[in-house]
Amino acid sequence: MQPLAKPKLFIFGWPSFVGGADTKLAHLLVLLHEHCDITVVPNEGRHIHNKTWTRFLEKLGVKYGLLDRLPAKLTGFGLSISNQCFFTHRIAHRAKERGLTIVWSSEMMWHHQGELEAVRDGLIDKVLYTSELQMQVLSPGYGSLPGAITGNYIDPSYFPFKERRNEVFAIGRLSRADLAKYPEDFPVFYESLDLPEVRFRVMAWDEKLRQKYRWHRFDSRWELLKAEQEGQIGFLHSLDLFVYPLGHNFTESWGRSTVEAMLTGAIPLVPPGHNLENLLVDGETGFVCGDFLEYQRHAHALFNDRPMREAMAQRCHEHAVHTLCNREEHLMLWLEVFQ
Amino acid sequence: MRSGYCYWTVVDGEYAVMAQTMVNSARQVGVFKEFHIWTDRSIQGAVCHETGQVEKWGCLFKLTFLRDAVRQLNYEYFVWLDSDTYFVRHPGNVLRVLKGSPIHITLESDVCLPQSRRPEWWSCPNAQFAALMRSKGVRSKAFFNVNGGFFIVHRDAIETVFNLAYDFWQFSRGQGLTFNDEPLLAYAMQMLCGNPYAHTLRQTADLWASDWTGCFQDRLPDGQAWWFIDYFTEEKIPVNPAIVHAMRSKQALLAAAGP
After folding, report:
1. Structural domain tally of chain A?
2. What is the ipTM of this complex?
3. Contact (CB<8Å) B102/A188
């Protein structure tokens, strides 16, 4: 039997380990590189001088280059993930003119600038969703466009499990420094958990967040780290619990940082009303907390019961590896998109 | 900026007379914190500011004064008192009730308790009030009412409090409900306080409570314990706060100010 030709895939964007969408792209390349003929097309020329990522791509056998240097006629799929420039810089328009079938994934709970105009103008052929929740919100804007839920793949080998032996119990979070992602009462919420001895660790803190919470006196329990001030894995390993209350005007469409935390063995305590509750089994691999007292009760139970905590951390990892980040399942979903 | 806090209020007419009694009662029990009072007349023992024209509907001026005038004062926290307030003993450090929160207003009753005997609060059905709060981001299973007679705000949270309150006012108005200060403060409080259950009347009644049923009807509070009646469930709770919102003692407060 003749092997099927690999789908030709042009990905508009650039991988990174900062920010959900660019990180997703990095892991997607790891997932798809053996199964698709991939060319990564950055928005700007400066990216192809970044040796970290060009080496990463070369190691995977993924080609890269600017759109203007590619042939005038192309066949295959043009995929872009949460890339604002794809529309504002008319990259989508040029990709379509060259003959690509355009596949778009917003990743957010809102439409990007120029996205709906591109839909209206017939530039987009297929849309991807991260979750049912996101689909409910965005699909009305897409009309009759075909769509698929492809979720969010994380290569588990990038987030190894570690049994926690932190000198001081630590809770914290890692997310981009977006004011909307933080609840109004964030620091007092953490402190009100009233854990007997605790460190509060937050990474990707910035001046805007400092301003937002300038009414609070952050004492010595707090470590507010800038983005990438520590390695992501080391940071997650430092957390016993990943406590992730969110801002009231924000909805998490998937919850990548929560799954990354779970992979490493940090136990998530998350609010309902987001896709997060689909990522964990409540009471088994973390807790969905509908009230402050639930956060407090579970945080104290996990603080006081080390065997329970260790068992749950292990289950978080297993669940993330085998269910949420199942390589074969994700591969199948993605390859269906490019049929 | 001076650390610590001052008391403040806005009064005119008879309310200014009651404010004099309030300040006198504070001084009598040894409270020498500054009272900043926006008033149409002089009040002894207080720092007085010109009040100007005040739109009194719904007591929303509390929020606009907080944002526009009070914030100019050189304190870290600002403690609002309605003028019909009476100190029966020294309250100690009133900031203790903040528990790390940038705002405190006493959370009185969960409006959705099944044993509630009132169907609504400020003309808003209880279930609708809970739904409004939930829609605007309150993430708890209890939704509390408040009395607007006493609240504390950190200076650097004033803008946030005001914006939250205004956002909730607009949102509710869009649903056909024009709220006064209390639902707005209840919302801002429950968005900002971390653990709402640490700010309930039961947890903080040694400091302040409102005698809305008139235990001290037409007389001044005397420092004896009294029954606070839960506004929704009518449950009786024994209280003896240092600061009494003597809202049914207005004649006594007027008389106590002297000629």
Report:
1. 2
2. 0.94
3. yes
